[in-house]
Amino acid sequence: MTTRKSQEDKADEPVHPVSSAHHGEILKTVGDPALDEAARYIATHDEFGPMTPETEKEIVKKVDFYVVPLLLLIATLGAVDKVQIGTASLYGFQEDNDFQGQEYSWLGSVLPVGTLVGLVPASYLVQRVPPAKLLCSASVCWSILTICYAPCRSWKGFMALRFFLGFLEAAITPTLTMIIASFYKKEEQPPRNALVFAYFSSILNGFFAFVVGKIPDSAPLAKWQYLYIMTGTINILVSVIMFFVLPDSPMNARFYTPEQRFHAVQRLAANRTGIAGNHLHRRGTWKWDQALEAVLDIRVWLIVLFNVVINIPNGGLQTFGSIIINDLGFSPLESSLLTMPFGVVATGGAWAFSYIAAQWRNRRTLVASIALLLPILGTALVYGLPRDNIPGQMVGLYFMYFYWPPYVVGISLPQANTSGRTKKSVTYSLVTIGYAAGNLIGPQTFRSDQAPKYTAGVVAMLAAYGASMLLLGAYWAVATWENGRRDRRYGKPQLIREGSSALEGFDDKTDKKQDSFRYTT
């Protein structure tokens, strides 16, 4: 008995080049604005033969070796700026600036407010500026703001810095997501997401905290000031280098040979989601019908809501994680070192569950739901065990950071299921709005007058995990129903076969406008 392959399975099979019979006709349409930049590239580069499995392996190996580490580094350094506020508090940040009541919590919440506002220009620019250049330029700017923390001495000043830091960091998720989708097939994306969106910031932040912890108390500046100066300076240097070496798409990846570049573009036709243009994001490419489709797509809103609730714990733990450890009786230096396993747990979990999601096809929502059981266990341990049970408290706290794997698996869904340049831009921005909203809410659930148990924060996290499971189940149901409806109406999706045009995989059409598109669940 033979089994029918899903569209995601079929993505493994080779996409054949444009036949010579179609080439003359295609060249006439190269100027058509409906064509993706990748389609234009393929139409004008037909001199190479079919891609062999060995060639494809070398193509993937190169992008894994060159692009993923660069994206991981710039994403990690950007995240360090956000989580460093908790470490700075271990070295007198709150006391030196005389914060009162919920002022510190608002410093955690104002950053995602800036992100929400920043998504408006970010959505516009990501359509018109090469994504890697946009990401690196924003990184230089937010790194300069990081250095500005050192001379600041008022709560209002820090609020302004945190707001504009979030404003600039609005570019992170749309650009990273777009770059990954421009290099990898659908089934290859989850483990790469886990690498790029790794939680290494806690590890790096713990190391920086350890370094400044060795600065003598007689130094002219406070230790938390040195922390921000060091981080901002390193970020600026890295971002400037990245601006010149990080490619936007296979079309301007200098580490490929011309033949590899051609096949790297062509093999992504089966994704049917297009590739971000490496340049020439022309005026007029914004399509209001695609923007409206994104806003009215229930799948988009389910992931937006998922991003809201799953990031409520993220917002709280980023701001208060190191403080919770300090409340257990550890010194500032010990507390900073004990935050480093946060990154190990979150990153290791994200890799493991993303690998499972990639191998266990069309089960991403189920994998994410299973992963959510771990932070629920951790939250229960922290709240239920006595405070003097330090080992149990630490184990529970580390398990709480398993909230990161379901988030990483979840963000791969709109990445795999959204087609159309404008629709992708709007979708990624809406998803980032969800991320920012969750991070805004999270710190407010941790009340300073409820330390050290933070009852409201614990209740909020448990409610968020339950809601996340419900939303993932709803996404699975909606996508599965739509796939079945399309199968009944149009039949099973056809693979792009030899003799047909691979360019149809790069048409600037949305997923709803493609009869052969099937949603990954």
Automatic annotation (TrEMBL):
Show the Gene3D superfamilies listed in the entry.
Answer: MFS general substrate transporter like domains
Residues covered by region (Disordered): 1-23
Q: Where is the composition biased (Basic and acidic residues)?
A: 1-15
What coarse category fits the chief subcellular location reported for this protein?
membrane
Q: Which residues cross the membrane?
A: 65-85, 105-127, 164-184, 196-215, 227-246, 337-358, 365-383, 395-413, 425-442, 454-478
- Keyword set for this entry? Membrane, Transmembrane, Transmembrane helix, Transport
User: Which compartments does it reside in?
Assistant: Membrane
InterPro entries, alphabetically?
MFS, MFS_trans_sf
Question: Topology in the membrane?
Answer: Multi-pass membrane protein
Q: Which PANTHER family match?
A: MAJOR FACILITATOR SUPERFAMILY (MFS) PROFILE DOMAIN-CONTAINING PROTEIN (PTHR43791:SF41), PERMEASE-RELATED (PTHR43791)
Name under which the protein is recorded: Allantoate permease
Organism expressing this protein natively: Apiospora hydei
